[in-house]
Write a structure and sequence with these properties.
two-stranded antiparallel ribbon; five-stranded mixed β-sheet; about 190 residues; Retrovirus-related Pol polyprotein from transposon opus; endonuclease activity; DNA/RNA_pol_sf; nuclease; 7 strands; Nucleotidyltransferase, domain 5
Length: about 190
C-alpha cells in the first residue's frame, strides 16, 4: 500500500526543475503524468486520464496518441507555460511529427500540433514497458478495485487491521461509522 501512496504522491512545482510529460493512449482511454526532475529524483506534479468518446475510439493509433498529448498539454497548460518540457510517447511516428511537412495532415492533426508546438517540439520515444504511470492511467477503467456485490473481503480486512482498531475510539476526531450491507453478514466500517 505504501508503494501506491508513494507512486501517486504529488509535489509542488519547482520553477527551475526540468519537466517531462509522459503520455499514453489505448483504444478506449488516454492517460498522462507530468513530472519534474530535481537532481536524480523524479517527482509527480499531476495525473490526467480520460475515456475516449465513441468518435475518438475510431481514430487511428497516431491520432489517439496525438490526442493524448494534445489534451494532456491543455490540461497542464498552467504549469507548462514558460517552461521547457519534454514529451514522451510510446508511438514512434509522433517523434517525427514536427520534422515533416504537413501536406497530408488533417485539419484536426494540424490544430493539435500547433497547440503542442506552443509549449515544445521535443517529443521523444519511450518504450511502453518504461512508460508505466501514463500507461496505468490510460487503463484506469480496467482496474477493478472492489467488487461492490461482495463486501466480505473488505469487512475481514477492516476487522483484522491493527491501525484501524487503534483509531477507533482514540479521540483523534476521526469518525468511523459501522454500517450494515445486505450483501454482507458483518458490519462494514465507513
Amino acid at each position: 500500500m505504501r508503494l501506491i501512496a508513494n507512486a501517486t504522491a504529488l509535489f509542488f512545482p519547482a520553477t527551475d526543475a526540468r519537466l517531462s510529460l509522459m503520455t499514453d493512449a489505448l483504444d478506449f482511454a488516454i492517460g498522462a503524468v507530468l513530472q519534474q526532475h530535481i537532481e536524480s529524483t523524479v517527482e509527480h506534479l499531476g495525473f490526467f486520464s480520460r475515456m475516449l468518446s465513441a468518435t475518438e475510439k475510431t481514430y487511428s493509433t497516431f491520432d489517439r496518441e496525438l490526442l493524448s498529448i494534445y489534451l494532456s498539454v491543455k490540461h497542464f497548460r498552467y504549469i507548462l507555460e514558460g517552461r521547457e518540457v519534454v514529451i514522451y510517447t510510446d508511438h514512434k511516428p509522433l517523434v517525427f511529427a514536427f520534422m515533416r511537412e504537413h501536406d497530408n495532415s488533417t485539419p484536426r492533426q494540424i490544430k493539435y500540433l500547433e497547440l503542442i508546438s506552443q509549449f515544445t517540439t521535443d517529443i521523444r520515444y519511450i518504450a511502453g514497458r518504461d512508460n508505466v504511470v501514463a500507461d496505468t492511467f490510460s487503463r484506469i477503467s480496467q482496474i477493478n478495485l472492489l467488487n461492490l456485490n461482495d463486501f466480505s473481503g473488505l469487512v475481514e480486512d477492516q476487522f483484522s487491521d491493527h491501525e484501524l482498531k487503534s483509531l477507533m475510539g482514540s479521540g483523534t476526531g476521526l469518525e468511523i461509522t459501522p454500517m450494515y450491507f445486505a450483501s454482507s453478514e458483518k458490519t462494514t466500517l465507513l
